[in-house]
Amino acid sequence: MTGQGASTTIPERPATDADRRFMAAAIRYAQRHVGRTATNPSVATLIVRDDGTGPRIVGRGVTAIGGRPHAETGALAEAGELARGATAYVTLEPCAHHGRTPPCAEALVTAGIARVVSAAADPDPRVDGRGHAILRAGGLSVTPRVMAAEAAAPISGYLTRHGAGRPEILLKMALSRDGRIGIRGGGQVKITGAVADAQTHLVRARHDTILIGAGTAQEDDPRLDCRLPGMADRSPNRIVLDPRLRTPPDLTIARTAAETPTLIATLASADPERRAALARQGVQFIACEADPETGRIALPELLEDLAATGVASVLVEGGAETGASFLDSDLVDRLILVQGPVEIGEEGVRAPIDVATARCRFRLVREYRFGDDHWYEFERRAA
User: Fold this and answer.
1) CA 71, CA 32: separation in Å to the nearest integer?
2) Distance CA 369, CA 351 (A)
3) Whether 153 contacts 34, CB under 8 Å
4) Which residues are noted in the entry as Zn(2+)-binding (predicted)?
5) Residue 95 known to bind ligand
6) What are the boundaries of each domain within the chain?
7) Could you report the per-residue pLDDT of 269-290, keeping only the tens digit for each?
8) What is the CATH architecture of 165-380?
């Protein structure tokens, strides 16, 4: 018996090869809106039905841009009556909390879904097992944690925000062949080629916020946007770490603050006249505390405040000092190092981490070759 009113819990069925195949398809579909779903994760749902001639997808849904409606809602709407007796593949445990609309878990029960195969567990205390409990109480068969690690990757920021109470941090740096990131006072130094640069813009499009230090802002005057064709609207919000508020109002990120939200993390004692000039450009401010040992912005507290506003992922593209601050504070969850063929020489600024050190400290998960550039992706080692 399935649907509302069922009085017994249906035993859990083990995952099959077909289950893993459909879940893999759902995980790929979830990638569609990564970085565009506000405080909600980009989740996908596939409704699969088999009437004796083989399984077929009768409904698809992905978390809508802005975060609502959820994936289950879209998939059930597309499936209609074909959802009754079907299997739902969901990349994250269905939500269990009431808002203006009923929980997705209840919607699956009401639609007559017979079985739910889910992937990643949801650490949100409003869900965290409650979604599965609603499904089982409704008489549905539930098979959890199918391809959980693969499903967690696209929503790792959301999972970190709920699990660690801060956004996920990705530190990205371009290194010369001799381990330098630039020349102090020399402006931007071209290290990588066009393909690697395009990959960088794709990474930006998948993050909520991009962060740099005040020194990088002044020396490089970067735009910090996504410049891939057709993806200008995917540019992340921008944050500058500037405890003494040195950022001049004529920098590009200040002049374009009305178009792309730009925040400066600074101390309460910062120059009020400079603050007013930047505010007239549309810049907003985050009040921060100072680290008592260094006088720099206290990063754990800043990240906690960002998480409270719903920020789930921060891409750090700062210079050596900013990168070292995040590394020294053990706040880097993922690391991308792109090594180009150029040599800068002894006058260059040495990177706070190189590929050899990263291999020891982090776990190498991917490695690519883009022309003459080597692209390395690392993740935090499991505790």
Assistant:
1) 12
2) 21
3) no
4) 70, 95, 104
5) yes
6) 17-155, 165-380
7) 899 999 999 999 999 999 999 9
8) 3-Layer(aba) Sandwich (3.40)
